[in-house]
C-alpha cells in the first residue's frame, strides 16, 4: 500500500494536461520571460489566437480603459491597455485557461487559489518596481504560480481549504502542518508539477522554496520578492514589519485595487468551471 505522499505524487504523474504543449502558450511563455521582447513580438503571436485576442479587445473596451470609442482591433486594444499591462493580462489568461480551468477544481476552491495568487502577484510586481533587481514581469509570473502545489491538495484532500484557513488563522506554518498530515507539502508538490510542466528552472526553484529553504544564489532576489509578497498578504499594520513588508503595507490600497481589476477581467464563477 502506497503512503499518502506517494499517492499525491502519483496524482501529478497521471495529470493529463501539459500547458506547454499548447503551441501558442509555449511561444507566449518565451516572449513573456524575455525582457527584450517587444510589443510587435507579442502582437504577432496573439493575433493568431482567437480566444486571447478577443479577451484583450474586450478588456480594452471595459470600464477601466474605455474612453468612449469602441475598439475592434487587437493592435489598438494593446496600445490602449499598454504593453506591460497586456503582458500581465496574457500571463493571467494562460494561468486561468491552461491550468486552473483545465484541472476542473471546484469553483469556490478555484476562486480561493486564484484570489491569493493574483494578490501575491500584484504585490510582488510592486516590490520589483521599487527594488529594481528583477524584471517585474518575471516576478509577477512566478508569484502567480508560487502556490500551484496547492492545486493537487485541493483536488485530493476533501477538507484542504478548511485546513489552510485554520492553519493560517492560527498563525501556524502550513508547510509543517501539511508535512505532518501528508508526508509532503504544497512546496514539494508544486515543484514536481513545475518540473513536469517544464517551467524555467528559476520558477521551479522558487516554487520549491517559497516558504523556507535555500535556492542557488542567482535566484535569491526573485525568491526574496515572492516570499515577501506572500508574507504581506497575511501581515497586519501592527506587525513588526521587515523593509519589504513595510513597503507593501504602505502600498496596500493600490495593490488591492490592481487585484480587484484583474479579478474583474477574469470573473471566475461556478458556471465556467462546472
Ligand atoms: Fe505557499
Ligand atoms: Fe502563497
TrEMBL record:
Signal peptide interval: none
InterPro entries referenced in this protein's UniProt entry, alphabetically: HD/PDEase_dom, HDIG_dom, HDOD, RNase_Y/CdgJ
SMART domains linked to this entry: HDc (SM00471)
Every HDOD domain range: 18-213
Domain of life of the organism encoding this protein: Bacteria
PANTHER family according to UniProt: PTHR33525, RIBONUCLEASE Y
Protein name, as recorded: HDOD domain-containing protein
